[in-house]
Amino acid sequence: MEKWIIIGFIILFFFLGLVVVPQKEEWIIERLGRFSRTLKPGLNFIIPYIEYVKAKVPTKDIIYIEPQKIFTKDLVKIEVDIIVFIKVKSSEKAVYEVEYYPLDIEYLLISTFHTLIGNMTLEEVLKNRDKIKLTLKKTMNKKVKDWGIIINSIEIQRIEPIKK
To answer: What are the structural domains, with CATH classification, of the chain?
Structure first.
């Protein structure tokens, strides 16, 4: 009888440790509060009660859409719609090098964009859309490379002056 109870616990322990990571995700595993490993998509095994899933990180492109109201150098208030395509290259860095990467990228994008546009006149902004995108992408990639993230593309959909 004891033998069957032990075998039952072993089987239960085994099934509790099986996890299936979906396609286009990676899971960060911690063992007793420290980083252990990154699980790739498919069937994986963790040690129940000792290891747990710290974070589930999408590895597909993530899109952020941020409409922004900005003053140009000549004090014209404009509204700009920005689309940012990011990709997580290192799940471990994205989880441990920054507090919450989606929000931090958003704040970084907003501050960088405001600084860039704030140093241009309305005419320069309207003429140099491609230059703005390229400069913004280069600047953002420099700042987020330590987070295990790359900015694939930044698109400016709309630039409109706001009437008073």
So the answer is: 2-58 (no CATH), 62-161 (3.30.479.30)
